Amino acid sequence: MEPMLPAAGDRSLEDLAADLIAKSSALTASLNPNVANNLGELVRSMNCYYSNLIEGHKTHPVDIDRALANDLSPEPKKRSLQLEAKAHIEVQRLIDRGQDLPNVVSAQEIAWIHRQFGQRLPPDLLDVENPQTGKRVEIVPGEWRTSDVIVGRHIPISAPAIPKFLQRFEEAYQPKRLSKIQQVIAVSASHHRLLWIHPFFDGNGRVARLFSHAFLQRIGIGSSLWSIARGLARNVGEYKSLLMQADGERWNDYDGRGNLTARGLREFCQFFLSTCIDQIEFMRSLFEVERLLGRIELYVEEEIRAGKLLDRSFPLLREALLAGAFERGRAATITGYKERQARSVLKGLIKAGLLVADSPKGAVRLGFPTEAIERFFPKLYPAVGERSN
Questions:
Q1: How far apart are CA 142 and CA 54, in angstroms?
Q2: What percent of the chain clears pLDDT 70, i.e. is strictly above it?
């Protein structure tokens, strides 16, 4: 599995890591913490959508929202995909809220991610066919595979060797042994090496992406406001090609000193870090407050003309974005209306899902109904406005 990291002193990778650190910190600092938390829920749904898309499972955002509301399809296949999406979101939410697993690169945490995801799946998604033998294999959440497999052209290590390789994995990527720059580079390298080990019969791709998200979070760089999955899905051909390239053995005496290609690992790390930066920049463009307010105002004006919202709706949404949340009793002051009319405006926004609350009388905050996502956040999803049956 060596080398575990690209050669030390690689200026281009170090510059990418430093840029990623700076831009991720700036994104987090640019938003009210309450708004950031609200947006985190939206980004988790987006992350789930794109991570599943990489696996060939397309679940429409509308169906993801329905799954989170326990409104599941009676059609078995669609229902299973909804439950898969919900499982992904719930596990990432645990990671984002700081699930107390102290060693992010340990075999225990990797198994924990797989277990938490698998325990939430329906039985039909825990029974897969081995393409080499044609036999059905039962997936036990959190347990390593017990036989050998072939993944495309890659032949992962034998099943009995998995614990030993994961021990080396933990030693090499232990954050406390690395500088901050090295930690960021280690996130990209470990993403490939975990997939190279292929510790589970199924679910390795999703686990690797959730693991990378957790790794970034634990070193203080990641955030619930952006996701690598969208960038990987939008460049899935290059992503899979570079993964396969990094699977290869050393090309020649100039290609590092380990068994695997150093050049292939470096090129994958460069792609991974560049993709992270690209996604941070994309999300920052969407979350820039003045532009977001402009898009929200245009949307509200159209909804008012269509008779779906009442006049003076926008000031309430603006307050929710700028302040993070506000008490319902302030609606009259914010809108300039008398109490009764202000309550009607507020009620209309809550009914439309543009304002949400944790309780019937609790403070309200900005909501992101599926119908408005494309208007608020263009290109977050492809063709998000197309509803499924």
A1: 22
A2: 94
